[in-house]
Design brief:
The chain has helices at about 30, 40-55, 75-90, 110-115, 130-135, 145-155, 175-185, 205-210, 220-235, 265-285, 305, 310-320, and strands at about 10-15, 60-65, 95-100, 120-130, 160-165, 190-195, 200, 240-245, 255-260, 295-300, 325-330, 340. By secondary structure, the chain is an alpha/beta fold. The strands form 3 sheets. Strands 1-2-3-4-5-6-8 form a 7-stranded parallel β-sheet. Strands 11-10-12 form a 3-stranded mixed β-sheet. The protein is globular. The two termini are about 45 Å apart. The site of iron/sulfur cluster has 10 residues, from loops.
Length: about 350
């Protein structure tokens, strides 16, 4: 996962605006902590300018992103008004493009025609699952067929397609989630986001959890499973640009997450497991590794992923392979996902 080319995002949250109902797992106010009223043209402009004032890297493109609701479910005049205001920043050269997230069942030819004149670079669809049983149980109100159809329409227009999937939804299983990942890959998205389901305060799922009708996946199982899905997309060459909810003081306050595999460093934990697995696979093929001191070389930005949270990976490797010591050294000659294990040669 390389964010160096990622644009400077100016997030405009529109919590639950345009949503036909509340999906079982969702509470955007809890996720975003945003309770401010729907932005007027003036408020939108002020917000964009405020974000631009924090932009340090002049060469990085800026992108206005409407998140947290169902953008194309807004009234047409509202969509036009928000996009017209955003477009003013593109005309002035301060912003490069616009993106938004929306439900698959709100995308059709007519909607795409209506926004064609704006500089939209990407549309993200909340897929969540490609299993109609899971979609029904999660109260999504659309089918997998809607996602297939809308993805095709977006790609036909030459727009970037982002797909968001969830794991651990009501009625879901590892098998169903993996099938979802396969079907998502077949839709040829430009990027993916993966969100493990957590029980958010104020969501229908919170009621189901309290009533014993829903059990979330434990954190460690969720990390291992999301790792498999990430590795699948990686093999397919599809970038995964986000794993897990974005940490925030609202999410971390101990009240908004009722249960489930939330961790502020969820993505980091997934990558740590990938690094651990790679080293384990190398060491398994070694004979007489006991009591040796090894050195692991990684990219400077991957040191903490290699070590794991609180040095967890180092402890596991030392214990499982009875190693004397493990040093982790950084070098720019390695890619962000690469590593090399140096094992001292046998003496004599
Ligand atoms: S998941 Fe999307 S469509 Fe469903 S309630 Fe949340 S923001 Fe609205």
């Amino acid at each position: 996962m390389n964010f160096s080319n990622a644009p400077f995002i100016i997030p405009i949250f529109i919590p639950h605006r345009g949503c036909p109902h509340q999906c079982a797992f969702c509470n955007q106010v809890t996720i975003t902590g945003n309770t401010s009223p729907f932005p007027s043209k003036e408020a939108l402009s002020r917000k964009i300018n405020a974000y631009l004032s924090f932009k340090k890297n002049r060469t990085k493109p800026a992108q206005i992103a409407f998140y947290g609701g169902n953008f194309l479910g807004l009234q047409n005049k509202t969509i036009q008004s928000l996009l017209t205001e955003a477009e003013r920043f593109i005309c002035s050269g301060k912003v490069e493009s616009i993106r938004f997230s929306t439900r698959p069942d709100t995308i059709d030819e007519q909607q795409l025609d209506a926004i064609q004149k704006f500089t939209i670079s990407a549309i993200e669809i909340g897929v969540q699952s490609m299993d109609d049983h899971v979609l029904l149980k999660s109260n999504r109100g659309h089918t997998a067929g809607d996602t297939t159809k809308s993805s095709g329409l977006i790609r036909e227009r030459g727009l970037k397609l982002g797909l968001q999937m969830m794991t651990g939804l009501p009625g879901d299983s590892e098998k169903r989630s993996l099938a979802t990942a396969h079907q998502i890959a077949d839709l040829l998205p430009d990027f993916i986001r993966i969100y493990p389901t957590v029980v958010l305060a104020g969501s229908p799922l919170a009621e189901w959890y309290r009533a014993g009708k829903y059990s979330p996946i434990p954190l460690d199982e969720s990390v291992t499973f999301v790792k498999k899905i990430y590795q699948f997309f990686n093999l397919k060459g599809i970038p995964v640009i986000r794993i897990g909810l974005q940490a925030s003081s609202d999410l971390d306050n101990g009240e908004n997450i009722i249960a489930g595999p939330y961790h502020p460093a969820f993505g980091h934990m997934v990558f740590s497991e990938i690094f651990l697995e790679q080293v384990e696979n190398i060491l398994k093929n070694e004979t007489n590794i006991r009591e040796k001191s090894i050195v692991i070389h990684v990219h400077p930005r991957s040191i903490s992923k290699m070590r794991g949270l609180k040095n967890r990976n180092i402890e596991i490797l030392k214990n499982d392979f009875q190693l004397n010591s493990i040093a982790v050294l950084s070098s720019e000659r390695f890619g962000i996902d690469q590593l090399e294990v140096e094992i001292p040669a046998e003496e004599g």
